[in-house]
Amino acid sequence: MSLTTGPVVLQAESKGTSLPPIGSRGVVQSVFRRALNLDFPLENGERTLCVVLAPGLPMASWGCRVKELPTPFEKFISIGAPCSFDGQILTVEGCLRVDFSSARVWDGGSLPPGGPVREDVRLGLWRFVRRKKLPGFLRLFAPYHSSVRNDVILGCAGEAAAAMVRARCARDTAGEAEAARHLIGLGPGLTPAGDDFLGGYLAGRFAQSPGGSGDHDVLSFASLLLPYAGATGIVAQAFLRKALVGNFSEYIADLARAAVIGGISDGELQELAEKVIGFGATSGADALAGFLTSCFSTVDFPFE
Question: Which residues contact 25 (CB under 8 A, 6 or more apart)?
């Protein structure tokens, strides 16, 4: 990082494979202490999001992660500030330049061909979520789930999740999608809990399929949800649209791969789960709840 009277200069450590087109111009969409979202209009009338992440946050294919961030973004960047990308430098006018010249390409968001989640892994995750008080939609897996039935959003999520599991086990793709679409935009915030839950569920569906991120059957299911993706905000759409084509942020992708491949200790599994739920206020917990839901059948689903 270079401290001068001009823009702050940061070096990108990693860059994704779905960056804005060269020559793109846009505006700052949202600013947080350790993350920055940039909104770029495209020639076809659509928009693409680019995220700049602080060290330690999970990579996403539509952005970059910087090597260091001594000063929180919100201290020197404002919403609505003009920004641009020339292929090597990401600029927020007057305040930030991110240099991509030495960044490694991160392409870990796709999942390889897989199969059912290993039983030891599923039971390990089940023990993990039941032995501690966790936030968000993970409360669906609490031993006393009925005590949170007065939470309207949580109740809607539970009904949708149960219907998704029933339809998936019955090989009813249309029914699964019809239940899943009610999760899109469910809840407050830039990334509503319903979208995060659905992203985790999709990670589980792709990871457990014979074709991985290219699996025809899961892509057919996901395609039925694509027309509804615009029902949520632009930040949530960035995650959701990628998830619908089998591409996920770093931590949930790592967990999904490990759950299918196995070969990790219970401690390593819990470490992965902790990294997932540590993302955002409840976003990671909601995604983990969705992933867990993809691992159950109608026989053992805990909140039918």
Answer: 40, 82, 83, 84
Average pLDDT over residues 165-187: 96
Length of the chain: 304
Q: How far from each other are the two terminal CA atoms of the chain, in whole angstroms?
A: 52
Report which DSSP code applies to 141. G
- For 79-126, write each residue's pLDDT tens digit: 999 999 999 999 999 999 999 999 999 999 999 999 999 888 888 888
Residue pair 46/57 in contact by the 8 Å Cβ criterion: no
> What's the CA dihedral at 69, 70, 76, 78 to 10 degrees?
30
CA distances from 141 to 63, 117, 262, 285 (A): 33, 18, 22, 11
DSSP letter, residue 249: -
What is the model's pTM? Answer: 0.93
| 304/299 Cα distance (integer angstroms) | 9
What are the helix (H) ranges across 92-233? Answer: 119-130, 152-169, 173-180, 193-207, 216-223
